[in-house]
Amino acid sequence: MKRREFLKSTTAIMGAAIVTGAPVAVFAEEPVRGGTLIWGHSETTQNLDMHQTGTASTGRLLQNVHESIVSADADFNIVPNLAASFEQSDDGLTYTFRLRDDVMFHNGDKMTSTDVKYSFERVMNPETGAVNFEVFNAVESIETPDDLTVIVKLETVNAPFLSRLAENGAGVVMPQGTGDVQGETPIGAGPFKFIRREFGNEVELERFDDYFGGPAYLDKVISREITEPTVRLTGLRTGELHMINDIPLDRMSEFEGNSDFQTVAWFPLNWDFVNFNHDFEPFKDARVREAFDLMIDKETLMQGALWGQGKTSASPSFPTSASYNDAISQRPQDFERAAALLQEAGYGPGDLKIVFKVTTNYPYHVDSAQIMLEWFRAGGVDMSIEQLTWSDWLSQVWVDKDFQVTMMNFFTLWEPDFLYYSLYHSTGGFNYRKISEPALDEMLERARVTVDTDARMAIYKDVQQYINENTLDVILWFRNGTIGAQPNVMGLDTVVQPNGSEMNFHKVWLKA
């Protein structure tokens, strides 16, 4: 299948997963219990503390270890999970959660309201370093009148509070007092319990028979961390691996229609963008940022780095979200305009010496940087590339904010407050670019207290307009997701979660 044909077939399904290559009859078979699934994971896990981790690679694995108090269904409606039910007061300031009474943690403890209070307060505590701390900014108190009731009272309205609890660990409940061990030996209430990790090599999970949703079919899941696409593909072909995520971008044609393997394809998996350090003198000037944007041909870059397996976008909002602003567009490549802007800002040809830091954890980021390098040099910028391991990128760029230009992807953040407040508010947990825009902060804070959904979505559209006009980042594209698997891996249609990025193996089984 040609790149554009694959793009057309996958982008048409907008978030749905299509499984091909397996006979239709197998889906009628009764699942069997047993066996170990060997998964070729395309990324390496880092800090295993679900409250602290900011990496989707780690969250994808921990999705199987932890559960949140609420979750989102396929249409992103907030539904009970560890809570049996929840209600919100008319004034929007009080949330009451009635907990399930059948939830067990992997350490043998039964979940109570004390664990929920502990978990929420742990995220709130600045010393924890939780990436979602701002979810609880408006919390005034957390009460536990009995073992199965939690009452959260807010000082001010926080309209996206419930939806934030459903996404990326903010609402994950851990056993009381286990915070100190979560980074190395996570303990949760999910369908699989953590057994061991060989850092940078593999992670072993084992079925948790007391899971409140019913025990999984698989005995174990072993995640082998293989960032090199060719090695991952070879493992699948030789039978060493049962499944892999991220089929090498240039090898998809070998899998489409190949009855020897199953493939799962969906759109979108994630979105990518070019980042500027806003504390680096040249990039304090919006004209310089816009000039860099104007040097990039986004469609050509997408075809070259992704082999067309994606769709360019000026907005990072989930494509089907009511917050998506389709009125904004990407700037076309224009070297003449870029040179004029740099000249206005005081930079002639060769004056700007820039280091582009990129992680080898995403091989297509390296390809993208090498393509952009030629354009930036053609635009008069003295550019060099520094390739970093995932750990070094996280340390230098994410934590220390020691970079000038970088590139990153975020897995589809369907919840707009999580997306925009975390990434673009001056105090946001994901604001590693040191963006500080008072006008933008005001919009994001106003969205939080806007109860009317349509009005709140309109604010987020204004936020996207502001990001685009001021070139705070260069939004590139949404990327397709793919899974390749052996024919005996059943239940693949249940693996990819509604947000398109997380994977859950609860209903997966191996056919003998």
From TrEMBL:
Signal peptide feature range: none
Molecular functions per Gene Ontology: peptide transmembrane transporter activity
Record's subcellular location: Periplasm
Sorted UniProt keywords: Signal, Transport
Chief localisation class: periplasm
Domain Solute-binding protein family: 77-429
GO biological process assignments: peptide transport
Keyword Transport listed: yes
PANTHER family named in the record: OLIGOPEPTIDE-BINDING PROTEIN APPA, PERIPLASMIC BINDING COMPONENT OF ABC TRANSPORTER
This protein's name: ABC transporter substrate-binding protein
Species, as recorded: Roseobacter insulae
